[in-house]
Amino acid sequence: MALLVACFCHDLDHRGTNNKYQIMTESSLAQLYSTSVMEHHHFDQCIMILNSKGCEIFNNLSPEDYSQVTRLVEHAILSTDLAVYFKSRGDFFNLVKSKDCDWCDEENREILRGMLMTACDVSAISKPWEVQKEVAELVSGEFFEQGDLERKLNVEPEDMMNREKHHLLPKMQVSFIDAICLPIYKALTIGFEKLYPLKKGTEENRENWLKEGRKVGISGLKEKGVTDEKDVDESEATSSSKH
Questions:
Q1: Chain segment 127-148, per-residue pLDDT in tens
Q2: For the chain, N or C: smaller number of CB within 10 Å?
Q3: Which of 85, 92, 91 has its CA nearest to residue 36?
């Protein structure tokens, strides 16, 4: 139940800009939270709703259970910050490669919950091609709006925020897949075979984005995907993130 609530609430009251922008503009939210700015705000909004009349779905829990549930919800929502994902995924990759991993161990389960939240958060990349393409266009439109705001501050936006670089979307999507999506889906598939469709759909869309890139003559496309965590450029990955 805690994970379900976290999934519903993980982007509550999103401002259409990422953590970097919040910090750069010294927004009121950035003044409140020193790390994972938007994710902390999403969690606080979630708690506010859960404490609102008619939404108190956890009120019958004991104080101990209520504290545990809210802690689980907080951890899950904060895990959707890709900065948190990068800090934890190395441990997760090692766990799934271990043949004697104990998923009943609470520490291991917490790492797994965080990885599952990331897997869900970026799962549009695994959807049927027409859905994935439409979502990518919608998200890039939001990014471009942030880029427009940055220009008003005399800040040159990154490529993914720069509407003048819209033609590079296929290349940026391939980088996003290689740096964030495929590594987590490959790792999850090792430990949980039923999640294979996420990996398969993502690999198919990687090829689709390559085709789109070739159509418009984009150079420098990575024909072969990342096969090793060490090949991932974290700075490139985080620039492709939603938050």
A1: 999 999 999 999 999 999 999 9
A2: N
A3: 85
Of 193, 157, 158, 195, which is closest to residue 175 (Cα–Cα)? 158
- Greatest distance between any 2 Cα atoms in the chain: 61
Rounded distance between C-alpha atoms, residue 34 and residue 30, angstroms: 6
Residue type at position 24: M
Calculate the alpha carbon distances from 58 to 6, 71, 189 in Å: 13, 13, 33
Q: How many CB atoms lie within 10 A of CB 103?
A: 12
Q: pLDDT (tens digit, 9 = 90+) per residue, 209-242?
A: 999 999 988 888 887 775 544 444 444 444 444 4
- Judged by DSSP in three states, 26 sits in coil
Residue 191 token pair:
């430990």
Residue 182 has pLDDT above 90, yes or no: yes
Picking from 148, 122, 91, the residue whose alpha carbon sits closest to that of residue 11 is: 122
Across 116-151, b (16+ Cβ under 10 Å) vs e yields bbbbbbbbbbbbeeeebbeebeeebeebbebbebbe
Total number of residues shown for the chain: 243
